[in-house]
Amino acid sequence: MYGDWSRIRFDPASHYLAVVKQQGRVDLDSDDLEQHAIDLALRRTINTDVIGLYGAPEGDAGFAIALTAGGSGFTITIGKGRYYLNGLLVDNPSDLDYDQQPYLIDPADNAAALFAQLARAAAGATIGFVLQAWVRTATALDDPNLLEPALGGADTTVRLQTVWRVIGTVIPAPTQTSTSGAQNDPVSLLAPSCQALYNPPAAVSRTGLLTASLAQSGSDCGCQPIAAAGYQGLENQLYRVEIHQGGDLTSATFKWSRENGSVVTAITSASKGSAILTVTSLGKDANLGFAAGQWVEISDDTFLYGPTPNKPGVLCQIQGVNPATLQVTLSAPLPVNIDPNLNARMRRWDQSGAAASASGAPVSSNPTPLENGVLVAFSAGSYSAGDYWTIPARTASGGLLWPPNGSTEQAQPASFTRIFSAPIASVTVLPGDPNRRGSPGYHLNDCRLLFPPLNALAPFVTPPALHVSAISWVNDDVMTVDSLLQHGLSVTFDAAPANAWGGGNFEVTLEPPLLSDVSGSYETIVTAFSAIGETNLGTDVFLRTVFDLDPPQGVTVSSDQAVWLSPVTDANSRTATTLWLVLNTALGWQNPLGFARVRVRLDGGAVFATGAAGNLYLDGQTFGVGATRASDGGPRVDLPLPSGHGAKVSDFESWFYLAPSLRINSLVISGTVQGAPQQLTAITLQINPQGVVQHIYVGATAQGSTVTNIQAVMTFSYPPLADTPVSLSLSGTAQGASTIASIAKSTTAKKAATTATAPISFQGNPTTATTYQLALEASVATAVSSLALSASLAVTVVVVTPPPVLQ
Question: What would the pLDDT profile of 310-335 be if each residue is shown by its tens digit?
Answer without folding.
Answer: 999 999 999 999 999 999 999 999 99
